[in-house]
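Why this split exists: single-chain examples teach little about how molecules sit against one another. For that reason, every record in the complexes split bundles all components of an assembly together and asks for one structure covering all of them. Below is a record exactly as it appears in the raw files.
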Amino acid sequence: MKIRTKYSLATLMTLTAFSAAAALAADPATPDVEAREQQLERHVEELAKELQAVQAELQSLKAQGQAATAERQAPRAAEPVQSAAVAAPAPAPATSPFENLSLWGYGEVYYTHPTADSKLAEFDLARAVFGIGYRFDDRTLYNSEYEVEHAVTSASDVGEFEVEQFYVDRQLNDKVAVRAGLFLMPFGLLNEYHEPTNFYGVQRNFVETLIIPSTWREGGLGFHGETDFGLAWNAGVTSDQDLSKWNFAPEFPQYVTALDLEDNDVAPLQATHQELALAKGQHIAQYIALNYNGVPGLKVGASVFEGKLATVPAPPNAPVPDDQHLTLWEAHARWMPGNFDISALYAHGAISNLAAINASNPGSPNPIPSSFLGYYGQVAYTAFNRGGYRFAPFVRWEHYDMGASYEGVPGPVVPTGLVPISAAPGDYGYWPLGYDRVWTFGANYYLGPHVVLKADYQSFHVNSDFSRYDLGLGLNF
Amino acid sequence: MKARLLLIPLAPLAVCAPAYAVTYLTVEQAQSLMFDGSVLTRDVRTLSAAQVQAIESDSGVKVMNPELNAWRDAAGGWFILDQVIGKHELINYAVALDAKGTVRQLEVLDYHESYGGEVHLPAWRRQFVGKQHGSTLQLNADIKNISGATLSCGHITDGVRRLLATYALVLAPAEH
């Protein structure tokens, strides 16, 4: 606009000068110089008036332009209001059903390389998960997550397709919300927050995989809320485990690498989970979880789950007396002072009245444990945090024991020495033990909050052949 | 019997627990809380492209909405209403600045997701008090994270850094 105005003025002045000269030259009949000067003055005066008129018009146009700009950039409204009484702008009503729809996802890719046998190295698209949520109204929310494990799912492939979450959250009042459906159990530091950007290491720690069976979900009904001083509570009733799924007589080891150990559902609560797939429902379990978040950077919590289990079918001549109860409890803490991120967790599970069941399966390499436990400590340090990039090396020590005690039998009867570990001819190895102590050294490198590159080395003390290098890529949005 | 015993502690929690709610404060409640009933003048602006670019360059945070919802009090303080994404839903929050552009208070007006609502806890929000344009304002640095609410914590932290840049580059210069 300014440029156009300048050009217009210059053009007008030039035209004015030419007009004056032309007027003078166009009147050859003027008798004398004085008369010609007077005529010239009149022309100049007329042109000056025209020029002023044009300038005024231009100024008017310019002012209109400035006003339009000001309307866009300066305050559109200057409404003095009393802060206690100002009318709040109401949220715009949804004009499309898609405005209430939420989509999200996460996933992770691994490369794992056992140091003892490079032939067992594997690549894996461990999981690709997509989530769909819908807000029905201000108080009612639906969330669901669907997971593809190991890239391909078919009858001849190792992958699985699972519904990981499927629940409705309903705010009952200002104090309590209720959740119903298939939901994640509020246990430990990882189960509800299992996306790869939320934990250190290429894969989840063993304690929160084998003892707390992340990603652990049950079908049921739960209530939850949080106080102003930061105490979050969660309690409810759910489905539980099914001991009849237990495999007492595996022909071969159920896992021969650390990756198998995490993937093959061998731990007590992994092997008996039902995941709401035609789940046996004659018994109802219950849980309570408390977490304190009232101090920034600190989280302290504990939870307990208790339920009567669907039991192992017993022959008529060997009835199983009493019921089997599962009790799982855990306590955890996470503290993030400065650049440090320190966490620790202890988890313990117990199943009662197993003596008769285990005694009816003598010599089993895999009896049902009466107790199982694990604990870990982890320290991470943010060494670099700039421009959205964050680099955090970490170290973790953990102990897991999937069979800390047994009833009815002294323990697993495990073949010693080299034994066939699969049906493939010549495939020999050692039968692994169900407990270990593991050091993990590694680092997470975040490319913003949604993408992380990971690397680690894990050293196993008992099953030393499980030691490995891992690389990983994780994302979450 | 065991089931009943385990659930007994739920009862007092359900009775005593205040304010787990989708909406914690309306805009007028937040203004009253943060400016104690003083007169506020609404000052809604649309940021120009140049201003958006300057704010993004200064704060390192993308400006998703050029509409700036601000109110000003007689003492020169500002009430700014803003939105950020938590994990996948919007969080409405408000920041009160004093006449020098220092954060006096931050309030989360609502939270709509099943996880991460801990950002409304007073102790976490108090970390922003005293922050100015130029403060680090980085999660896991001068703003501590909440385990399980990382994305919401990070996005609100980024949002406040963006608002302080907006104050410094747009609101403060207009006063002089």
